[in-house]
Amino acid sequence: MLLAAGTVRVLYVDDDPGIARLVQKHLERAGYTVSVAADGTAGIALAASEQFDVVALDHYMPGRDGLDVLRELRELPEVPPVIFVTAAEETRIAITALREGAADYVLKDVQGVFLESLSTAIHRALDQERLRREKVAAEQELRASLDRLETLAAQQAIMLREVDHRVGNSLQLITSLLGLQAAKLTDPAARAILRTAAKRVEAVSLVHRRLYTSDDLEFVRMDQYLAGLVGELRRAATADTVEQCVELRAAPVRLETDKAVPIGLIVNELVTNALKYAYPPGEPGTVRVCLEQDDAGIIALIVEDDGAGMSDQIPAKGGGLGSMIVRSMAETLHATVELDRSHKGTRTIVRLTS
Length: 354
Fold this sequence. Notes:
Elements: E1 9-13, H1 17-29, E2 33-37, H2 40-49, E3 54-58, H3 66-73, E4 82-87, H4 91-99, E5 104-108, H5 114-184, H6 188-212, E6 219-221, H7 222-240, E7 244-250, E8 254-256, H8 257-277, E9 285-293, E10 298-305, H9 321-332, E11 336-339, E12 346-353
Parallel strand pairs: 1-2, 1-3, 3-4, 4-5, 7-9
Antiparallel strand pairs: 6-8, 9-10, 10-12, 11-12
Helix pairs in contact: 2-3, 5-6, 6-7, 6-8, 7-8, 8-9
């Protein structure tokens, strides 16, 4: 939509006073407010000191031609659209003016079409300028919205990291309390139950610890997470018997948090069971944990030992809670759990899609 009549200011630059008067009267009858400059220097001075909506600029003027004036006008902080005016036989100059940044050009002629063509060009230039400003305003608003979204996302990330930090600290506190309670018990069976519970809580706590120390709050690097978990299980095994050890080989698979926690609990149960029951007391042995992903995106978690083997129950011994946890976590992951009967000892394979 054009500006209201009388509010559009036009600067016409031409050294021919007769044509300048004709243009001024014609445009003023159309409702424009028109200022006239007799040469390029005066036109530049007016454009620099006053606000115009459009400039019409003749090419042939003494001292400085229209192209020189156009280039200097284009350097103004708030340059209005410029319509270049040239003779009919000088279309090459008009094309050069367009390349230099003119919004449009009008040919002077002797048939009287010039004034109407200039009015049409002014109308079109104002429309184009309005669209340009609307586009600039929309882009600025979009950038501002993106900045607000980035700020909000950063704030949410900080809040989420803080939540994970607090959850991790709370779980670590629970682990410590379970350990303290276990240390006070004289019943070996009850003490073992509390220590097993502490390990399960620690498996969950490690995920939150990994999250609040990482830039990625949505995914967990499973090789790093399992390294921490296996390290805890290895230290627990060393405390009980120096003959047992846990080895890890894990690909740098990235999984969502709600998948990392069940996998951690499965590893905790299978490794703990193997450390307890795979090898006879005093006999050295190794428990191996492997996490790999094939080209189809299928993830395989393998926990194996070279011990006595197991029955169809997973885990084979204990109170049965470990078996329930493994199967429950596998259902959560929509994963399959199978025993590799061809392996000497026990090999449990859990398969899921990433």
